[in-house]
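OP here, attaching both records as promised.
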Amino acid sequence: MAHYDIFSGPGMVGGEPAGREKLCTIYRILWQRGTNNVWFGGNHGFAFGFADYGGNPGCNGQRGCSGNYEHSHPGINDRHGWLITGGYYGIAIDTWPHTDGAGNTFFDVWFGGRTRTTRFRVGEELGDFWKAQVRTELYVSSGHNAGNIADDPAAQAAFWNRMDIWPDPVSERRDAANGNWLSQEPDYRNPSDWVFDEVSGIAVLANGDAWIGSSTNGLRLIDHDGHFIADATDVLPTKSVGALAKDPTDDSVWIGYRDAGFGVSRIKPDGTVLHYLALGDAQKNSAVWDIQVQPATATSKRRILVAFRRGSVGVYDGD
C-alpha cells in the first residue's frame, strides 16, 4: 500500500517557499484507464498522481518523490481578494485524443466544483500538468492590464475555460460575451452575486459534449468548449444530482441522486429517459454519491456500480 501525501514541501512553490497543503479532503479519485495517471478532486482544487507510486515517507513534499503534482483549480477572486474555489466532485476524461511526435496519446480532463468547471488542457499540452494549469488559471498575461484584458487573448481563453455552467449574475468580467473585458469581481458576501454550480458529476460523450450534474441545479449539456446546449433537469425526478457516468455501450448517461429514494436514471442518445427505483431494499432510501461503469469483457457483461451514502455498493447489469 502506498500513501499519497498531496502537498508541496519547502522550496517547491515560488510564492509559498515554506510549502503548502491545500487539498485536505479528497472527494473523487479517477484512474485514467490504460495509463499511469490518477486524478484527485478535493476541497480546494485537483491534483495528479502516478498510479505506480510506491510511497516515500521521507519525501517531505518534494516533487520528484511525492508521486503527485498539486494543484490546480478554476477558482476566481472576489472583490475582497478571496479565492473562491472548492468542492471538486466532478471529474471525467475527455474523449478527444492528442498525439505527440512519438505516437503517445493524451486526453484533457474535466473538473467541476462549487463555482466553476474547467477542461484541464493536459491532453492538448501533451501531458504537461503545469502548462495546462496556466490555461485554466491565468488571469492576466505578463505586460498586460488586469483591469481590462481586451488585448490579452491568452487570459481571455483561460477566462472561458473557467466555465460557469449556471451563470452568476456578476462575473469576473463586465460583459465578455460582447467584448467588454473590464474587471468586475463579485462579492462573496452578497448572495445575489452568485448561482453556485455545486457540480457533482461530469460525463463526456464521444463527440466531446459533456453532461454536467449539480447537487442543487440539476443537469445541463454543454459542448466541448463550454457553450450551453440543453437543460435536462425537467426530465429528472429531482434536481439534486449526486453522480454521473457515461455508458460506453451506447453513449447514454447514468444519473444518481443525493436526494434519497429516487434511485438512478438513464438518458439515452435518442432522448429516452429511464428511471430505476428497484435497487434493493437496503439501498432504496439511500442517496447515490458515485456511479462507475465496468466495461464488458470477453467473459463478462457491462456492469453499473452504484455507491450509496449508507456505505454499500450496488452492482447491476443488463439493459
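Record two, same layout:
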Amino acid sequence: MSNIALCPNEKISIERLSHFIVNLIGCWMILLGQGSLFIYLPSFLLMQHDFNTTHHGIALSITYYMFGYGASMLLWGALSESLGRKKVLLIGLIVLVASSIGIAFTHSLEAFLLLRLLQGIGGGCGTTVSRAAIRDVFEGSALAKAISYTAIAFVAALGIAPFLGSLIQTYLNWRYQFWLLALLGIFAAITILFYFPETKSTAVKQASLHPIKIIKQYLKLLSLRDFIVPTLGGGLIYGIIIAYNTINPYLFEKTLGISPIEYGHIALFNALAYLVGALITNRLVTHFGIKKIIRIGFFTIFSAIWVLWVFQLLSTINIFLIVLPMSVIIAGQAMIFGNAMSLTLHSFKEVAGYAAALFGCLQQVICSGLAFAVSFAPYKSDFPLVMIITIIALSAFLLLFKKIRH
C-alpha cells in the first residue's frame, strides 16, 4: 500500500487542529472537575437539612472532594506517563461518572462524603492528564496562552456551575445537579474516545509503574526550588477562591438572607471578574511576560484587600461591599494562578505527567486543608473572610517574591 504524502501546509493544518483539540478537551476536563466542586454550593443549606447535619458537615464535602482530587493526581500522573494520556483520561471519567450517580441516590451523610472523595479522585484525573497533554504539545508563551484558556474554563465552572446549580435547586432539587455532572462526564468520554489524539511522545522512554521509581521521581521534583516555589505560591493563590466559596454560602444565604438564585447571580459576577483576569493574561502575557503579569495580579489583590479592611474599620457589612472587592481579588488571582503553573511546568517537559500531577496534588491538598480550617470559621460577619484572604495573599506573595521580582 502506498502512503499519501501531505504537503507542508496540510501537515501544519493537521497539527494545529490536533493542538486545538488537546486544548479544547483540556478546558472541558477542567470545567468538569471544577464544576463538580462548585455546582452544589447554592444548595448547602437545603442539603444540610436533607442530611440532618450542621453547616460544618456539609462544608466537609469540599475538603473530601479536594483531598481526593489532589492526592489522586500523583497516581494519575504516573499512569499517564506509562499508559498514555488518552486511556487514563477515560479511566478517570468512569470513576467520576459512577460516583456522581451514586451521590444522586445517597441519603446518608457518610456515604455522601465517601462518594465526594471518589468523585474528587475521578475529577483529579481530567485536570492532571489534560495539563500534561497541553504541556506535551505547547512551548513557551504558547504554553502560557494555552493554560490561560484553561483558566477561562475555570471561569465557566466558577460562574456557570453555581448558577446552573441554583436553577436546578429552585426548579428540581440538588440531586439533579449530580445527574447533570454524570451526563457531562459521559459526553466527555465519548468525545475523547473518538477525537482526542495521544500526545505522549513515543520517542520518550515509557515510564515505569514501579512504586519506588515513581516516589523517587516525585521526591526529585519536590527537591527542586524551580518546581516547589511556584507550586506552593500557586496553590495558596487558588486557595483564595476556595476559602471564599467555603464561607460565602452561609454568609450570603443565612446571614445576609439572599436566595439560591441570587447566589447564582453573584457566582456569575465572580466568574466575569475571573474572566477579565484570564483575558488580560491571555492578551498581554506574550508582550509583558509571565513575571510582570504576576506582579500586576498581586497589586490588584492587595488594592482590593485594602478596600475590604476600610469597610471593616467602618463596621459596614453589605453584600455589595463584599462582592465587589472580592471580584477584584478574583481577577487578580486569575492573573497569577495560570502563570504560576506556567513557571512550574516550563522546565519539565520530559516528565510533564509527573510535574502536572504533583503541581495539582500540592495545590489541592493545600486548598483542602484551607477548606477544612475555614469550615470552622463563624459566618455571622465578614471579618473572618477578610482576615483569611489577607493571610493567604501575603503568604503567596512572600513565597513568589524572589521568583517574580526581576
